[in-house]
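## retry 2 of 3
previous attempt timed out at serialization; input unchanged, resubmitting
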Amino acid sequence: MSDRDSQAGALSTSTHSHAPVVRDWKDLARLSLGALGVVYGDIGTSPLYTMKECFSPTHGVEPALANVLGVLSLVFWSLSLVVVVKYLAFVMRADNHGEGGILALLALVTDQGSNPKAKGEAGARRRAMLILLGVFGAALLLADGMITPVITVLGALEGLDVATPFFRPYVVPLAVAILIVLFAVQRRGTAGIGRVFGPAMLVWFGTIAATGLPQVLAEPRVLTAVNPLHGLRFLLGHGWYGFLILGSVVLCITGAEALYADMGHFGRRPIRAAWFWIAFPALLLNYFGQGALLLARGSEVRGNPFYELAPHWALYPMVVIATGAAVIASQALISGAFSLMQQAIQLGFWPRLTIVHTSREASGQIYVPEVNWALLVACVTLAVGFRSSTGLAAAYGIAVVSTMLITTLLLHSVARDLWHWPAWLAALGAGVLLLVDGAFLAANVVKISHGGWLPIGAGLGLFALMTTWKRGRRLLQEQVMGSRLPIELFLADVGRRTEQGRLPRVPGTTVVMTSQTGIAPPVLMHYFKHSQVLHERIVLLTLVTEGVPEIRGRERLAVRELGEGFWEVVGRYGFMETPDVPRLLERCGQFGLPIEPGQASYFLGRETILPTGRAVLAKWRKLLFIYLARNARPANAFFRIPPNRVIELGAQIEL
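## retry succeeded, writing output
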């Protein structure tokens, strides 16, 4: 296909790491502060609702000593096992040239070049299963991006209700207003806002630590909760109801996936330093402080124990600080959704969308309008529909845990195939992590009817869209390439016609985009068939998306002369980059092919797809694929091709 999205290829042989370099303690401190603002915004705001949900009246758990110590023990060990052991110790080792995230991990474990077990029939089946898992995990992360802004903003504003019932009717309208403003400013980029994220979250963590510390000092018995026996006794003593509380405890680890997803922005060392120096101690002080408050005041704590930690005079400032932290947490998820969608487009799982780069310095800072406004509509709908953080808690937990479980399964593949662990060791490690993830997931499954259906439904819907687009593009490519002609035969025919004087060659350069090297592009053959004329110089341009975040230096471009005025140009991009055809062509002069991109003609194909073909695809998926194809961003806009230099040739194709 002439304008086809390029597919994921083999891993580059480059050893370049996408993560920043830490040269000294100043770099470490600066990057750690940045990580504090971006990476830990979500998990840092979890104290707003975690303890409140654990001791919700619906669970029937009274704030007695054994119960408080049991819940605190579960929180402590959840943070320790999931964040410290799973993500900081193991998952972050599985970097794709310094980059993390579930799609980066997917590109790593399914690569056929670096993974010998991805080859062969058995390898193909295994690879297909891993791809489906990874895509579903990505879909759940996008669903999580709808829920996080709402639950954090609502959780912050509910402090107004603690201060006085007068504000109760205004919590939801205020949340909607904040969400609208938050999404409205996205088009300006996050460069300016990002500079204050770190200091603002430093204030937040300092505040929650300061409010929890006095309560811990007044009731030091809560510190014994670090003994895992308290959590075990709580689960055994409360039976089924104790197990269900895990569905609320899981809220304390929401945002843990961000540690891995944002690894390329900051690197492993700064993310780990920010956790152990600031985030982890502050979170523990606040959680244990809330537990001490519940012990001291018991059933008198009728509101949110997080806000009741603060003195009455500090309640309104606390709401302001919490709302700011909630906005930062939301921003991180929104920016993550933009990056995730860019990766999905480059890896061939989503139609082309508008990608706006909002920073000249940082290529990773992008804005995707279609995703932004879709998230806004979803967030406002959820805020109005659920009306409280409690209403969204069930939906939030199941999305987070499902993604974590998929990450564990992919990590097992990395341990076996890329780290070359013995089978028993990889199975043991994955088994322990799956035991934790599975317990959390099982505790959340019972909440499906109470809101858990939301992320599952949204995730399945996005999964259907992503797999339909990937499958449809592959079938369409097979359909078009079924009558492909090797480029050597086409060039031989051009040579014969030229010698016989039957082929006029007009001045100028034609750039023909094609998804596959070594064949005559269908759009060129279509044009040649009808016009019987060619330009003096014809460039066959193929753009390939590699399984690495970025391509640097001379690896970006390969140029080869084919003869008869034809040139083959292959541009290679990482899955976190957006192709720029004019800039790529300007570099061809270094390889003996000088091109003025603004003077060339660009041939693109535009297909009209009909669902009447024999392709093995359900009818509803054919119709869905056709709808997506019609609404995809035009190839010339996505690849930044000058619109006044484009020649589009149409064709009808039965799928």
